[in-house]
């Protein structure tokens, strides 16, 4: 009976791995590395001293500076630890087009010893949100597909209401939000998409070529979903009358959805 259970578990694992690799197939030419420890659900510390931020996902924040842990933060770290442990700490790295973030961390697509994209695995289990920040968007579509599978199955973060209404935004930070578009405006600063006066989405001029211009022109009056890091515009200057206080920069088309 025990043997049968183990065999069954092997086949389930094999099927799952095949599905994960279908989202983001293993590339050639990966650079080997050894993990010293898993910092959280999206960051690794390597034995060579580098900190690596996995490209393509944003895991919930662990408790810090008096703030409680976000839902599934501990589960995301534990799952990443387990995936790394399966390969005895060995992983493969593919550096992003932009190799470092503003904190000095190495930006890389990270693959387990079995060849699976670790970000896609966490996304497919509902333990993180898909993100795409140009120019590191090579796997945005397959990683979004991994998240979509978890969302449809209501796994992890998607068991509860993870999408906020635009009017519910009260603080800066990462958010997945929805709202109706009241206005789309173009100027030298790029494209500005206003959601019912509460939040404005911004596409910088240098990123506009990545978006479908005709789709943006059709957004007015539509219900949309967006994700990214919300910024409090009032921190830099007083917000003018009729101006949305909260701004969310859009960095890739996969960060925007239309119903």
Can you characterise this structure?
By secondary structure, this protein is of the alpha+beta class. It has 2 domains: 16-158, Beta Barrel (OB fold (Dihydrolipoamide Acetyltransferase, E2P)), CATH 2.40.50; 163-258, Nucleic acid-binding proteins (OB fold (Dihydrolipoamide Acetyltransferase, E2P), Beta Barrel), CATH 2.40.50. It has 5 helices and 14 strands. It has helices at residues 2-23, 73-86, 118-124, 140-153, 213-217; strands at residues 31-40, 43-46, 51-54, 57-58, 90-100, 106-111, 129-130, 163-165, 173-187, 190-195, 199-203, 223-232, 246-249, 256-258. The strands form 3 sheets. It has a 5-stranded mixed beta barrel. Strands 9-10-11-13-12 form a 5-stranded mixed barrel. Helix 3 (118-124) runs parallel beside helix 4. Residues 1-18 have low confidence and may be disordered.
Summarize the structure.
With 259 residues, the chain is an alpha+beta fold. Helix content is 24%, strand content 33%. Strands 1-2-3-6-5 form a five-stranded mixed barrel. A five-stranded mixed barrel has the order 9-10-11-13-12.
């Amino acid at each position: 009976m025990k043997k049968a259970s183990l065999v069954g578990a092997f086949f389930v694992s094999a099927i799952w791995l095949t599905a994960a690799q279908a989202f983001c197939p293993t590339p050639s030419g990966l650079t080997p590395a050894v993990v010293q420890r898993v910092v959280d659900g999206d960051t690794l510390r390597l034995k060579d001293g580098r900190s690596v931020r996995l490209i393509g996902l944003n895991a919930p924040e662990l408790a810090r500076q008096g703030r409680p842990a976000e839902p599934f933060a501990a589960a995301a770290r534990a799952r990443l630890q387990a995936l790394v442990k399966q390969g005895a700490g060995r992983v493969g790295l593919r550096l992003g087009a932009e190799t470092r973030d503003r904190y000095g961390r190495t930006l890389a697509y990270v693959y387990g010893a079995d060849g699976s994209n670790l970000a896609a695995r966490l996304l497919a289990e509902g333990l993180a949100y898909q993100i795409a920040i140009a120019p590191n968007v090579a796997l945005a579509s397959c990683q979004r597909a991994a998240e979509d599978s978890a969302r449809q199955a209501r796994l992890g973060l998607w068991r509860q209401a993870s999408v906020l209404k635009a009017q519910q935004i009260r603080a800066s930070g990462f958010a997945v939000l929805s709202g109706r578009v009241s206005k789309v405006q173009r100027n030298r600063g790029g494209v500005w998409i206003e959601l019912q006066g509460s939040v404005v989405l911004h596409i910088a001029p240098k990123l506009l070529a990545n978006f479908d211009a005709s789709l943006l022109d059709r957004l007015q009056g539509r219900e949309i979903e967006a994700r990214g890091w919300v910024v409090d515009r009032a921190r830099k200057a007083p917000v003018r009358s009729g101006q949305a206080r909260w701004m969310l920069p859009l960095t890739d088309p996969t960060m925007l959805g239309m119903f």
